[in-house]
Amino acid sequence: MSQDKTVLIANGQGFWGDSLLGPLRLVEEGPLDYLTLDYLAEVTMSIMQKQKLRNPNAGYATDFVEMLRQILPTCQKKGIKVIANAGGVNPRGCLEAIQSVVKELGMTGIKIGIVEGDDILDQLPELIASGEKFKNLDNGEAVDSILDRMSSANVYIGAKPIVDALAQGADIVVTGRSTDPSLVVAPLIYEFGWSMDDFDKLAAGTVMGHILECGAQCTGGNYNDWRNVPDFARIGYPVVEAKADGTFVVTKHAGTGGLVNIDTITSQLMYELGDPVNYLGPDCTSDFTTIKLEQDGENRVRVSGVKGSAPTPTYKVSMSYEDGYKIVGQLTYTGPDAIEKANLGAAILFERVGMYGKPIPEADRFVELFGTNVCYKGIVKQEQEPSEVLLRVGAKSHDKNLLNTLARELAPLITSGPVGVTGFAAGRPRPTEIVGYWPALIDKTKVTTSVIVEEV
Fold this sequence. Notes:
By secondary structure, the chain is of the alpha+beta class. It is built from twelve helices and 19 strands.
């Protein structure tokens, strides 16, 4: 293999619901070898699990399948491979949906691979019996207290099974809960022949994946110096030019909006970063303090020097559980003394709910006044009292009827509370389920992944 070989990898989705323009423009507007798409978050898995319970054919990112309908002809023409964790809790269902799209488009010769094994929800009793504790990483609590309310349990798997799918000729690889960087590490291992114990290179790939994982967040999106970001409407999603030695350049397609410089890349590197010396992943441990950034021309940042070490013997497990219900409604208070009137309105609301015989504990109440620097409470001083505020008021409870009582009493504040209220056009709010998050660890030897590749 030539050391001069360059592999072009882009990421077109930073989350489920990101702009469809990202992947569409990435495949149309420039050269590319791999398109990665990151759809999953912790709460997303629980939502997908509930969808699958209602419909065995659901439980994956349907947006991904519809997006493929639009880009597959171009991807086949240009030889672009697609890797996504869009399988959610039903990779097989996603596989079948993709196969249907390929057939509808009249295309042939497309190999689709799926990775399974991350979903361990049904295996929890067996795993606990084998000695797995699944203690909450945040507070050390035992899992027994919420086991009967568990709604999803997914292991953050690494790059190896994705590599196996690529080695079997897959043009599209779909996983469940793989880590975000692993979507990027896998094609590097496959293309450059990296070994799974070359931890410096795997760390470089992990850093690359971390930079790419939020899409346009590294090309000027959500960036503090936003006034200097040109053409936000046509912001370019990130493209990486990767080399076999682990160095790479972050850039974007020519002619697109956005900005790539050392500051935009540094901002993204700081995203969700705990211990910078020990950034833990299933493939390796990365030392972010070794990263070297250099401006390599306009909208080009070169990354080098990344060091890594062996991964831990455990995988992280993302678990979610049913934790009751919540409800949030809103009203707008205007005119003089808007803050005082809004606070009084919230107090009246909770007092009236208590008149039905069951008050809502103060610890379970939610009152927030937008317009009073609530997002920067205690940080940004309020210089002048606003003449209008948005009252967001609600509560949480395991009693759904109690929350419905609060919903019923919200609108009456308009005619039987302080003057100057508006903003109830959306109607009565409804209780929604609270999804609790439970992070834990599992011995890697207890997790078995499998790969299926089928051609259409």
